[in-house]
Amino acid sequence: MPGVWWFCKLCYMKVQLFIPCYIDQFYPKVGIATYELLQKLGCEVSYHANQTCCGQPMANAGFNEAAAACNNNFIQCFSAGHYIVCPSGSCTLHIKEHLTGTDTKNAANIRSAIFELTEFITDILKLTPSFASFPHKVGFHSSCHGQRGLGLSSMSELMMPSFSKPEALLKNIQHLELIYPARKDECCGFGGTFCITEEAVSVKMGKDRLQEHIDNGVTIITGNDMSCLMHLEGIILRNNYPLRVMHIAEILNQALN
Amino acid sequence: MAEHSHNAAAFIADEARTNWHDETLWMVRAKRDKAALQLPEWEQLRQTASAIKEHTLNNLDTYLIAFEKKALANGVHIHWAYNSEEHNSIVYALLQKSGVTKVVKSKSMLTEECNLNEYLLHKGIQVTDTDLGERIVQLRNEAPSHIVLPAIHLKKEDVSDTFHQHLHTEKGNTDALYLTRQARVHLRNHFYESEAALTGVNFAVAETGSIVVCTNEGNADLGVHTAKIHIASMGIEKVIPEAKDLGVFLRLLARSATGQAVTTYSSHFNSPMPGREMHVIILNNKRTEQLANPDFSNSLKCIRCAACFNTCPVYRRSGGHSYHTVIAGPIGSILAPNLDKKANADLPFASTLCGSCSNVCPVKIDIHIQLWKWRQVLMKEGYGTLPKKISMKGMGWILSHPRLYRFAGTVARWMMRNMPFVINNKRWNIWYRQRNMPAPPAQSFKQWHQKNHSK
Fold first, then answer.
1. Mean pLDDT, chain A, as a whole number?
2. N or C: chain B end with fewer CB closer than 10 Å?
3. Whole-angstrom Cα distance, residue B145 to residue B142?
4. Distance from C-alpha of A186 to C-alpha of B129, rounded to nearest angstrom
């Protein structure tokens, strides 16, 4: 009985949650949705209260060394040896590519134990839950680090078979109409400190992404990275565009009873 | 020199034109996708090309010497230039020796790198760029904004005005065919009059000692065949081992650049015609420094297709001139710091690190990874501003102290709720200039978790 096997396996699936700093501070609802979603999927979720940040803001600004103490804090928080799940492709990628510290052994373990939320569900839990209804026209924003860095989906530049881990989940939600923009995987222009240092280009990129979604008549934009969505939301609110953003964890959690 | 971000803001100020620039280059990217899709072995070709370049760069001395030996045997003169000054003086000495005062040029970003035009002009030699886009920007006294499409920042109205001013075409006539024909008539005379032809080199084949120049307009051939001296300039990284390797590179080059199966002309120059001279200048200009650095050496694999330009969402929305270097775009941003760290310290930051550049690169240069690595090098060596250094170190400090982080977060959210005028200030909060701040929640995730789930 595969069902029993899954049930037993999931009973013992211990997961440590990594909630990125900006989600912790500005979008706790995304953290809560991730927490609840993983629980509904049968995981035993733990959260270490001393966690702060993955260190990417400093590193991408050219100050990777200024993130050293932050990295050591991260290693201390996540050395329990469980899977680490994070509702951000970008932060996950940063840990995978750049986490180093005085505790080299645990740093290496963490680099291989961390997963972005949707890839954790599709690749580790290997679940395709059946979701209830979410009757909306949803535009998908493919965030670059998750897509091109973690390989969450195929990429328009590479001549490869088409696939998408987040889509594999979203398409199981009843009455959810998933719509991609014409430029399926162009960057939104957030880019971490880029959004400040290159403000003009950053905002223009965001506006252009949004325009494609508006042209498609979507009412909600979703994606795997709240940072991109925060940037897009900022532009939406400033210009009173007729759409809103929701992290994929919020949609999945809302549609899963 | 203004920073990329300032130049980009000035470019974007004309939003309609920015949209046009973005869409035009996106169209070229789409053509590339279509062409690549038609080859089932596309990704294998990229892998092969990358491996050939890797092997060549690892044995560069051997292949360069082999190329020189064969070329000399073919009757070609070989000159080695350590830097751009040496390159230019070699060109001038050759022209002077033959009493040449008029030269035509085709397909050479390398001579742009050496600022050859200006150098020769000061020496009293007339240089005419013959490729249409190059000629347009030369008439306007501008630099190319793109390495394959040098005048892509201009609309046909701009070209019409420029031609009216310099070639006396009809004012306001923006018919592309008309303008092209006028340029052709104008350029023909330069071909007839020129005594030397300067070209670039796309590939130098060590096995045969020949050079290959890829063009769509055929100006390299016209120039070489009408002039008595052909001077071809190449960087040391242009050499490839064997003629059969061209079967990999020629298939990738045009498809990546414009979506064409192959460039209209792939001209092989083996030896001078009887009574004429052929010279090849092999330039270093700090390429060996790049080669010596394992983090950045594979940037020398570049075959100058500009696919990374066309796919780059930042390039498309900021224009080539915003990069203030000869080679713009993502590849330029990893090549330029090697030439001058101080002047180009801003360029590795003119990217969101989205990674699209690395994905389109036909020789698989890890461009976005190198952008990240350049950032580390430049900041470590002190090319960042002091406020940036302080803010990043301060941020790193706060984020390494969990209690301090929690306190700072609580204060920030309290201020956003109770003193929004402090946060929502366009003068110091750059985010807020064109974007709203997120609505501050009453509690953080951490606080929620502590209340609901802490044991």
1. 95
2. C
3. 9
4. 35
Query: What is the per-residue pLDDT across B322-334, written as a single tens digit (0 to 9) for each?
Result: 999 999 999 999 9
| Predicted confidence (pLDDT) at residue A3 exceeds the cutoff of 90 | no
In a domain, A130, yes or no: no
* CB < 8 Å to B37, chain A: 159
Within 8 A of B15 by CB-CB distance, chain A residues are: 204
Helix (H, G, I), strand (E, B) or coil at A223: strand
Host domain of residue A40: 2-124
Q: Which of A124, A157, A182 is the last residue of a domain?
A: A124
Residue A132 lies in a domain: no
Tens of pLDDT along A10-45?
456 899 999 999 999 999 999 999 999 999 999 999
For chain A, what is the domain count?
2
Is a pLDDT exceeding 70 seen at residue B56?
Answer: yes
pLDDT band at A1 (very low <50, low <70, confident <90, very high): very low
Cα distance from B338 to chain A (closest Cα, Å)?
16
Q: Pick from A208, A245, A212, A240: which is nearest to A229 by CA?
A: A245
Residues B287/B113, Cβ–Cβ less than 8 Å? no
Q: Is the dihedral of CA B140, B145, B149, B154 positive or negative?
A: negative
Quick check: A67 and B353 CB within 8 A? no
How many Å lie between the alpha carbon of A86 and the closest alpha carbon of chain B? 13
Judge whether A129 lies within some domain: no
Same domain, A111 and A155: no
Contact A139, A133 (CB under 8 A): no
Residues of B in contact with A237 (CB under 8 A): 435-436
Q: What integer pLDDT is reported at residue A257 of this predicted model? A: 82
Report ipTM for this prediction. Answer: 0.95
pLDDT at B440 over 70: yes
Last residue of a domain, one of A103, A124, A145: A124
Same domain, A21 and A62: yes
For residue B454, pLDDT beyond 80? no
Residues A153 and A250 in one domain: yes
Distance from A69 to chain B by nearest Cα, in Å? 5
- Sequence spans of domains, chain B: 1-38+303-384, 39-285, 389-453
**Chain A from 178 to 207: CB within 8 A of any B CB:** 183, 185-187, 189-206
Nearest to A85 by CA among A136, A148, A37: A37
| Judgement on whether residues A54 and A145 belong to the same structural domain of the protein | no
Q: Per the CB < 8 Å rule, is A199 touching B433?
A: yes
